[in-house]
Amino acid sequence: MRIIVCDDYDGLSLTAAKMIASQILLKPNSVLGLATGSTPVGTYNILMKMYADGETDFKDVLTFNLDEYYPIRDDNPQSYHYFMKEHLFSKININPSNVHILNGTVTDAAAECKTFERLIKKSGGIDLQLLGIGKNGHIGFNEPEANLNAGTHLTKLTQSTIEANSRFFENVDDVPTHALTMGIATILRSKKIVLLASGEEKQHIISSLLEGGISTAIPATMLKVHPDVTIICDRAAYKGV
Ligand code: PGA
Fold this sequence. Notes:
The protein is α/β, with parallel strands linked by helices. Helix content is about 30%, strand content about 20%.
């Protein structure tokens, strides 16, 4: 794993946005794996600006989002459909038919997950997957467990994730208890992985990730088997090892 330590959140966002823009420059029909949460918002803001300034073109880009709450409607402001529209897709020239986000309204979650995997495969696979990291080491909604799921699946959120995400909801009881998420193997099949971590609250998990071994108790440690992972941190999230 490579680690890039930036002075602050703005530096982290610029570094990540430049990596994504370079990916698109090299391969205009890149397949991007995208993440939600507060950490990538700065990156998306810069990508929007790069598009507005004519520096990046999303015309032929395909995207697959990591996860979505379940059940949730697309028009719920807390859904990841809504988030992506708000923070990126409505501000760039992406073709809506090239956007793939798991559907939180389906009754057959297993079929939805299967279709999602098939579409990723059909696209040629994810070229660059952007990730955040939970304080408990989750990536996507792959929570710490004795056994991690390989493929895209329906999962139950841990109490710590429900509490962490409750900041976006009116109260903690409104946070969905389940989600659809890419699995660990889905993520590891991406050609390149970029994980973002910002702020002191991520310092502990970043140290565990860098210093420790591979364990399902910290799902992000699975990334250690991948040949092309870049962690972009700010100083607050990286205390050095
Ligand atoms: P955050 O979430 O970017 O809001 O910290 C990261 C995550 O839970 O994966």
